[in-house]
Amino acid sequence: MDFIKDSNFQETFSNLSLSNETVKSKEFEECEFVGCSFINCKFQKCKFIDCKFNDCVISAINPVDCWITDITFSKCKAIGCDWTKASHIQGLIFTDCQINYSNFAMLKLPKIKLINCEAKEVDFSETDLSGGTFTGTDFERSVFSKTNLSKADFRGAVNYTIDPRYNTLKKTHFSVPEALSLLSCLDIVID
Q: What does pTM read for this prediction?
């Protein structure tokens, strides 16, 4: 990664393509990534602050000891990412993205936004998603266990399986008919 400076401020990276590489100790502040591809890359001790990713492929990345703050992903494929490896992570916004097979387990991500996304088989176990916005997102086979969903907005979200006995659902917004899935864990018959 010689062509990226150690410290990058208000830079735009277009059509950058990295595969199976390690990026170490780089800082990106207020940078924009457009049409870039990062596949199976390891980001180690990097900082991403107030950056935007548009139309990027971010597949199976490993952000080891990275600082990730106020990042916006739009129309990206961020598939199979293990966000739990970051040392600090907050302020994530995903709009019209695919984040399938990703891991957010045990993270504190209040006010995260997943708007009109595909979030299939994502692990949200023991994650603080309080105040999050999940409108229009498909959560097929995603895991919610001991997850804090207080004041979260699931209106228009589909295919979620959330057991109210094992998750925190205080003032959480749901829409009908999908909200009926909250009753699927109970041994009842609805006619």
A: 0.91
